[in-house]
Amino acid sequence: MIDINIKKVIVLGSGALKIGEAGEFDYSGSQALKALKEEGVETILINPNIATIQTSEDIADRIYFLPVTPFFVEQVIIKEKPDGILLAFGGQTALNCGVALFRQGILEKYNVKGYPIIIRAAYTLGGLGSGFCANDEELEALASKAFTYSPQILVEESIKGWKEVEYEVVRDRFNNCITVCNMENFDPLGIHTGESIVVAPSQTLSNSE
Question: What is the value of pTM for the model shown?
């Protein structure tokens, strides 16, 4: 379910090369930028590393070769006026920067979204202590609950309501591919995988889907 109010987003990139971050996130960031472009969302990439795939031509609509720090990100926000910001594709540097932007009130000041999101408690089974948040109050309440089950929580973009489709593809060494079947989850995303029914072949996909 695409939020039609989001027309332009900032993606914090994989940053300068460091051990344990940066290069490992280049692929996921590149795929995110491609997916956003397919959905008609304008993308603004902030990434100081010119050696990444995501800084290649035509991946992002605009690229700023700047450090991924609150100061520089705020300057880009002022200039570009984005509707949202994506932190999950830049490793610890991007996550730390996003936390700082939130704590300094920069995201709220320029009306940059971080919601809806999903909270997941780490080291728990069956989704215990996890759920969806639409605002600060719900986030605080659910996070407090989750911390009673686990010392760590994960904060992620909510994709509740989306359809989940799986494809079984076989490929040989010459890159010949055949699709064996496609499967559609009976329930939309947001239902625990172990409690969801899979239908094969898919039944309700539209032509565009």
Answer: 0.61
